[in-house]
Amino acid sequence: MTNEFTLDPAATSGAPGGLTPEAFANLGGGQIAYVRPIDSEDAARLFPQARLQPGLKLFTLHAADGTPMMLTDSRDAAIASAVQNELVMVSVH
After folding, report:
1. Terminal C-alpha separation, the chain
2. Segment 23-51, tens digit of pLDDT
3. What pTM, to 2 d.p., does this model score?
4. Could you say which DSSP state residue 64 is in?
5. Collapsing DSSP states into helix, strand and coil, what is residue 88?
6. Residue 87 carries which DSSP code?
7. CA 33 – CA 88 distance, rounded (Å)
8. Alpha carbon of 75 to those of 18, 37, 41, 93: distances in Å?
9. pLDDT score at 9
10. Comparison of pLDDT for 92 and 70, the residue scoring more
């Protein structure tokens, strides 16, 4: 696998960490995703159409900019969805 992502030098100027907020939000161009554990109360705020029982442990698949894309009860299902959609998974610490 090769790194096919490039940064616009103008997007990194003047930012202490190197990226402007706009450049960081667009990082990955819709190709990067991450999985996050979440409880049903927080999931209900991200996915208002979902009818969830309190106390459930769930997982969300997010785009690099934090946009939630999928809600599931299985980490493996979230990862499989990312792979199926040809997204590159990253670890978020």
Report:
1. 22
2. 766 666 678 899 999 999 999 999 999 89
3. 0.68
4. T
5. strand
6. P
7. 6
8. 32, 8, 18, 16
9. 54
10. 70
What token pair was written down for 38? Answer: 């979440």
Closest alpha carbon to 26 in 48, 6, 49, 42: 6
pLDDT digits (tens, 9 = 90+) for 48-63: 998 999 999 999 999 8
Rounded Cα distance between 24 and 30, Å, is 12
Handedness of CA 38, 39, 43, 45 (dihedral sign): negative
Instruction: Give the three-state DSSP class for 54.
Output: coil
In terms of DSSP H, where are the helices of 1-93? 9-12, 21-25, 40-46, 75-84
Put residue 29 in one of left, alpha, beta given phi > 0 → left and psi -120 to 50 → alpha.
Answer: left
